[in-house]
Amino acid sequence: MIQYLLAVKKVKNMNLRVRPDGSVHVSVSRRVPKTAADDFVRSRANWIAARLAERAAGPGPLAPPDREAALPVLRASLERMWPLVEPLGVKKPELKARFMTSRWGSCHWTRGIIVLNTALTVVPQELLDYVTLHELVHFLHPNHGAGFYAAMDRLLPEWRVRRSALRSYTLAR
């Protein structure tokens, strides 16, 4: 039996997360009965077990590095990855850095800004570069639709391997 925390909120789909601390969280809309949430968690038991095993085997939580020390490392990644999207019409974005507890990066495509997590400075360079390119591709495709993944496949064919490797790292809370 898997224990989980259930949140009833305004969501379209049932959502499942395994947090860095190993807790399992499920979000459902008001119209979904608790039995459906139980069935949903049971149907994803193998996936949950795999995420918990990854977390246990990972290098442990990453502490928040100093922002000023992180900026040159993050900027170097932007310089390596931007030439891949420049021919597609992407202008070089403004780079911001901050420690985030639940994501590696974000793209504010309407304002021309990407934000990279300072914790990326302590992961292998190829993982940092994957996140940087992921955020840059959002200037071409703002969502995670088929076009986004097709662009990632063209620009960095091994991106799925890198994403999988990045999942072994957790962020300190």
Residue-averaged pLDDT, rounded? 89
Order of helices and strands: EEEHHEHEEEHHHE
Shape: globular
Major sheet: arrangement of strands = 1-3-2
Number of domains: 2
- Main sheet properties: 3 strands, mixed
CATH homologous superfamily title of the largest domain? Metalloproteases ("zincins"), catalytic domain
Task: Name the CATH architecture of the largest domain.
Answer: 2-Layer Sandwich
CATH class assignment of the largest domain:
Alpha Beta
Structural class: alpha/beta
What percent of the residues sit in helical stretches (DSSP H or I)?
A: 40-55%
- Percentage of β-strand residues: 15-25%
Properties at a glance:
18% strand; globular; Zincin-like; 8 strands; alpha/beta; three-stranded mixed β-sheet; 173 residues
Question: Quick gist of this model?
Answer:
By secondary structure, the chain is of the alpha/beta class.
Account of the protein in words:
- The protein has 2 domains: 5-57, no CATH class; 67-171, Zincin-like.
- It has 173 residues and is of the alpha/beta class.
- The protein has helices at residues 34-43, 45-57, 67-85, 125-137, 146-155, 159-166; strands at 5-8, 15-18, 24-28, 61-62, 94-98, 105-108, 113-117, 170-171.
- The chain is 42% helix and 18% strand.
- A 3-stranded mixed sheet has the order 1-3-2.
- The protein is built from 6 helices and 8 strands; from the N terminus they run βββααβαβββαααβ.
- Helix 3 (67-85) crosses helix 4 (125-137).
